[in-house]
Amino acid sequence: MQTNSHRRGHSAEPPPIPGWGAGDGYAHTTITKAPQWHGGIAADALLNGLATGLFMAAAVSELALPAVFTSVAKVAYPMALVLLLVDLVMLVFDLGDPYRFHHMLRVFKPGSPMSVGVWCLAIFSLPLTAAAGLSLLAALGHDFEWARRIAVILALPFGFGSAAYKGVLLSTNSQPGWKDARWMGGYLTNSAILMGCAALLAVSAVMGQAQAVAILRTAVIALLIINVIPLGLLFANLQPTLARLFTRERRWRTGVLTFIAGTLIPLVLLLVGDGPVFVFAAVTSLLLGSLVIRFVYVMIPHTKPSESRAVSGT
Amino acid sequence: MGSREKELAALPQVVDPPPRGRLGAWIERLIYPFRRGKPPEPRPATGFFTDTTVCIGCKACEVACKQWNQLPSDGFHWTGKSYDNTEELSATSWRHVKFIEQFSRESAGQFPALDILPGEPQHNRWLMMSDVCKHCVAAPCHQACPTGAIIYNEFENVYIQADICNGCSCCVAACPFGVITRSSMGGHSHKCTLCYDRQRDGLEPACAKACPTQSIHFGPIDELRELARNRVEELHRRGMPGAYLYGDAATETYSELHSFYLLIDRPAVYGLPDKPFNQWLYMRGDYGRSIAGGLAAIAVLLVVLFLQRG
Question: Concatenated DSSP letters for B53-91?
Answer without folding.
Answer: GG-----HHHHHHHHHHTPPP------SSSS--S-S--S
